[in-house]
Amino acid sequence: MKKIKAVLFDLDGTLINTIDDLSDAVNYALTKAAYPLHEVSEYKLMVGNGMRKLIERALPEDLRDDATIRRVLADFMEYYNAHSVDKTVPYEGLPEIVKEIRKKGYLTAVVTNKEEKAAKQILSSLYPDSFDLIIGQRDDLPPKPDPAAALLAMKTLGVTSEECIFIGDSGVDIETAVNSGAFPVGVLWGFREEPELRENGAKAIVSNPKDILQVLV
Hints:
By secondary structure, the protein is an alpha/beta fold. The chain has helices at residues 19-32, 40-43, 51-58, 66-83, 94-103, 116-126, 148-157, 171-180, 194-199, 211-215; strands spanning 6-9, 16-17, 89-90, 107-115, 133-137, 164-168, 183-187, 204-206. It folds into two domains: 6-17 and 89-215, HAD superfamily/HAD-like (Rossmann fold, 3-Layer(aba) Sandwich); 19-83, DNA polymerase, domain 1 (Orthogonal Bundle), CATH 1.10.150. It starts with 5 loop residues before the first strand and ends with a helix.
């Protein structure tokens, strides 16, 4: 492996535990529309592909038309933007590890399928001054696992794919790493399980934030 210069992180399930706030926001929108609600454990399997896909998966199968998705998504975003850090917290020890990574001279970035404005708002509160770059969902970029956002991050940081590791908690993240040419690292404290990470090509699995430092050695 070439000398690593940059560490790219997923957000939800990797840096921060957002599942309670996401669940509350989707259930708010579903309640407003008089649709069935879901448990937090169910939402763990729905997240990872962006907000629109989250809403689509949460809706009844016969109500997943574009107009309904747009309407429920708008209600979700209105609520979520006002309550995005009510229950959301960083995973224990990770803010300190990110600071240590930066102290060692590595560049750091976040590449997420969360809407970019929301991602920056949350990170400014929970991880202030911790990342050189934050790229979220936006109109000019396809969502992960398409590598476009990761490749844009690399280009902006001035590094090659061989000089990056990509850290995430889901198969989507590992696919993104593989598709972009970064070294794929899966974490076990997030929303998905180890088999999913390995099946999608994770070359390293970490169960404790401190283990990230060992991957960089």
